[in-house]
Amino acid sequence: MPFLILLLAVLALIGLISWAKVHPFLAFLLVSLGVGLALGLPASKLLGAVSQGLGDTLGSVLIVIVLGAMLGKIVAESGAAQQIAAALIAAFGTRYIQWTLMVVGFIIGIPLFYNVGFVLMIPLIFSVVYKYKLPAVFVGLPMLAALSVMHGFLPPHPAPTALVAQFHASLGLTFCYGLLIAVPAIILAGPVYAHTLRHIEAVPLAGFVADTRPESALPGRLNSFLSSLLPVLLLAPVLALQAVLPADTAAAPVLTFLSEPVVAMLLSVGVATVSLGTRQGKSLAAVMETYSASVKDVALILLIIGGAGAFKQVLVASGISAAIAGGLLDTGVPPLLLGWLIAAAIRVSLGSATIAGLTAAGVMLPTMAQSHANPNLMVLSIGAGSLLLSHFNDAGFWLFKEYFNLSVRDTLRSWTMMETIVSVVGLAGVLLLDWLLPLVQ
């Protein structure tokens, strides 16, 4: 019965959003309440789960998304994004812009959380799209594929880092194996698959793209790159120092503080306020008006993300994730494949890659104790499974849909399929490495 209720809930979401044209936030609330009652949650616990899910989800992303929107807006309004786009096109040409953006996404995806990287790079993607009249999904998907793979597969991102600790894996080996798997996954799900999406018509949010300016009115090229990528430049050395210095060093508390994405984004917005704002002739009041406009651009997106969090928490409170995992555990499937299946099933049910990964790890720990599976590969297998089939209950799905201003159908064709390709290729890479490693050792 819980599986049937979950299926009906997903179908209800599809019907309300796609056919009835109900706003996704309202659809999530209606379906969350319906599912909770159908699964037998008391009214008080159900409403508590809705509030907790909405609050926890927004609490984890709201500051980062708002600060990222502010940074993105001033990068666009100041002409810095136009300057960066012009530099990339001059260096590589429009023929290779997909690959250029993919490499940028790969590099910044190592230290940055997905949401931070997404809102940071959106102005750059849109500037390329508008300036050179290129298809938005075709240009943007490879970069976002790189960001997603880094988030799901590799430390220092939350789920992979926690999985390394739980399975007593090697952080270095997991990272190296993850890179070997990540590269083909990104290429196949990014530039290769995006070629089939050239004809998707998308009109991205214009709020993140400023009018084209004459080159003389643009900020300097170095200033544009440094101001736009400052979160990366702040986080990368901090994370590197954390990796090499002992945990009890005197600098550890300072590094922990500086490693928080919120701190990096706030410092970056402060610097950009000067470097792309007041130093370019804008008054501080004018810069603040730009920031106010950026918050309006993402307000509805934040509501949708909060609604998805409420739906996820109702499913968690009902215990359905444990039922799904338990049903798969008794199948006799090989451990690496089983870890992927459990993470994938929870991901499809709940939407959160992090929760899917951590829940699957808890289920697989007893199995790992009785098997000879490589713990580094188990981290990657679960990470790959946690990315499968992103759909209506995933905040990333709505970020992509709303920023690119796509229909639900085109979002499923592009974003959902990209995530699925990444997940399946990741599993194939894990199984291939599992076969090869004993041969070379």
From TrEMBL:
Major site of localization recorded for this protein: membrane
Provenance organism: Hymenobacter chitinivorans DSM 11115
InterPro entries: Glcn_transporter
Coiled coil location: none
Tagged with keyword Metal-binding: no
MF terms in GO: gluconate transmembrane transporter activity
Gene Ontology cellular component terms for the protein in this record: plasma membrane
NCBIfam families assigned: gntP
Localization per Swiss-Prot or TrEMBL: Cell membrane
Entry's transmembrane regions: 30-50, 57-76, 96-122, 134-154, 166-189, 225-245, 257-277, 298-325, 337-365, 377-400, 420-440
Topological type in the membrane: Multi-pass membrane protein
Family label: Belongs to the GntP permease family.
Taxonomy, superkingdom: Bacteria
This protein's name: Gnt-I system high-affinity gluconate transporter
Source lineage: Bacteria, Pseudomonadati, Bacteroidota, Cytophagia, Cytophagales
Record key words, sorted: Cell membrane, Membrane, Transmembrane, Transmembrane helix, Transport
Signal peptide: none
